[in-house]
């Protein structure tokens, strides 16, 4: 067992004050501290390298319980900053060997961070997911005419197949409408792959998974439009989450979006 | 198809580690109704807009650091939405650090494994559980 410690970095802002984190602990239970350099501040906490060093992380990232605790701890700290200041979140599991390493980061990437902060100031991220609505129950039997039971079955089956096909096409078109209507109300958007049904725990197919960066002044319009779309388009289900810290829009130039 | 009892949306107790799948997706509040199920962080307050309405930046930080929006404590965000963001979003740093691009790929691989294991948990009679 080694007593070696690392520094887990959460987020960068122009100003971060330790008292914002009263009652909040970081990943692994450490208290939140700050590292400042060149007018930028990072929120950090100490972690044990035995648990958060490279080798340990490789295996622990496989453990969903561990991953959830880490993700929630990371988010908790970023959220506490985002509630008060424009913030650039760092990716989960950004660990330095020393506070000096974090200071070096702030200094070297000063411009990247300032650009990112400028991009997200007075804006928040909103998530929109669109699902296909559950399929209609199949039409009652006996609606066709002529032929024997075999022909009736085939006819029914064909109707079901084409109805399902039509429903899918309509839902995809509705999902496109959602994005077309919301995009102009945002300053940027980022599409993600649909989430795995095993993680969403939903039978409905996810058609759209988009993050929008929205001016705070446009927020009411944006959320009202999302509500309105959901009401107007019965073939789909719209889910809105937010406001989020701008996770999806702080990506630096060395990591272009896909 | 067993979906298990969905966890409550508010203030869930520490999760039973063997219990239902971890994506803490609240129950879809309106399965039939048209309005969107708004999950995760609380929606922005509809009435008075954000606390900070004036200048887009703070020239002089106010002493009390008023919060820009309400805390998300009451409605924990869905894990799947969070993972979307904390793993794929955010500035990626490399350097003295250990987490390089290769490690990011590792994370993605890990998540595929996770998805498979969650699926097996969810469907006890499903194909994932045979022979294990």
What are the main properties of this structure?
heterodimer; A: 258 residues; alpha+beta; 4-stranded antiparallel beta sheet; 9 strands; 40% helix; disordered C terminus; B: 132 residues; mainly alpha; 2 helices; flat
Task: Report on this structure.
The complex is a heterodimer of chains A (258) and B (132). With 258 residues, chain A is an alpha+beta fold. Chain A contains eight helices and nine strands. Chain A has helices spanning 49-52, 54-60, 64-82, 99-108, 110-120, 149-182, 197-200, 219-232; strands at 5-13, 33-37, 40-48, 88-89, 95-96, 123-132, 188-191, 206-215, 236-244. In chain A, strands 1, 2, 3, 4 and 5 form a five-stranded antiparallel beta sheet that branches. A four-stranded antiparallel beta sheet of chain A has the order 7-8-6-9, with helices on one face. In chain A, a hairpin with a 2-residue loop joins strand 2 (33-37) and strand 3. In chain A, helix 6 (149-182) packs antiparallel against helix 8 (219-232). The radius of gyration of chain A is 24 Å and the shape is elongated. Chain B is built from two helices and no strands. Chain B is flat, with a radius of gyration of 20 Å. The two termini of chain B are 20 Å apart. The chains are: A alpha+beta (258), B mainly alpha (132). At the A-B interface, helix 2, helix 3, strand 4, strand 5 and helix 4 of A face helix 1 and helix 2 of B.
Ranges of chain A where pLDDT stays below 50 over 5 or more residues in a row are: 252-258
Net shape of chain B: flat
Q: What's the story with the biggest beta sheet of chain B?
A: none
What are the secondary-structure elements of chain B, in order, as H or E?
HH
Shape of chain A: elongated
């Amino acid at each position: 067992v080694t007593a070696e410690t690392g520094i887990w970095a959460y987020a960068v802002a122009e100003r971060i004050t330790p008292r914002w984190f009263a009652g909040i602990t970081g990943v692994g239970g450490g208290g939140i501290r700050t590292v400042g350099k060149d007018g930028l501040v990072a929120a950090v906490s100490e972690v044990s390298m035995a648990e958060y060093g490279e080798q340990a992380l490789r295996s622990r990232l496989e453990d969903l319980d561990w991953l959830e605790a880490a993700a929630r701890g990371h988010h908790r700290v970023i959220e506490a900053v985002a509630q008060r200041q424009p913030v650039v979140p760092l990716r989960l599991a950004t660990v330095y060997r020393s506070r000096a390493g974090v200071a070096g980061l702030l200094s070297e990437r000063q411009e990247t961070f300032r650009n990112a902060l400028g991009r997200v100031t007075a804006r928040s991220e909103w998530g929109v997911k669109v699902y296909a609505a559950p399929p209609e129950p199949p039409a009652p039997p006996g609606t066709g005419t002529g032929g024997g039971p075999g022909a009736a079955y085939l006819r029914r089956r064909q109707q079901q197949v084409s109805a399902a096909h039509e429903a899918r096409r309509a839902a995809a078109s509705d999902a496109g409408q959602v994005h077309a209507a919301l995009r102009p109300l945002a300053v940027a958007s980022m599409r993600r792959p649909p989430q795995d049904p095993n993680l969403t725990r939903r039978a409905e197919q996810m058609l759209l998974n988009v993050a929008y960066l929205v001016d705070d002044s446009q927020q009411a319009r944006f959320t009202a439009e999302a509500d309105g779309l959901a009401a107007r388009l019965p073939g789909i289900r719209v889910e809105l989450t937010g406001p989020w810290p701008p996770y999806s829009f702080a990506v630096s130039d060395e990591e272009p979006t896909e | 198809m067993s979906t298990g009892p969905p966890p409550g949306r508010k203030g869930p107790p520490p999760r039973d580690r063997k219990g239902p799948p971890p994506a803490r997706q609240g129950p879809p509040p309106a399965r039939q109704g048209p309005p969107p199920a708004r999950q995760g962080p609380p929606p922005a307050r509809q009435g008075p807009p954000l606390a900070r309405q004036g200048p887009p930046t703070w020239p002089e930080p106010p002493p009390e650091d008023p919060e820009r929006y309400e805390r998300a404590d009451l409605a924990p965000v869905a894990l799947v939405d969070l993972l979307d963001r904390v793993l794929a979003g955010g500035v990626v740093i490399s350097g003295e650090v250990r987490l390089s691009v290769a490690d990011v790929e590792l994370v993605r691989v890990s998540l595929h494994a996770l998805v498979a294991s969650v699926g097996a948990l969810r469907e006890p009679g499903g194909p994932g559980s045979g022979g294990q």
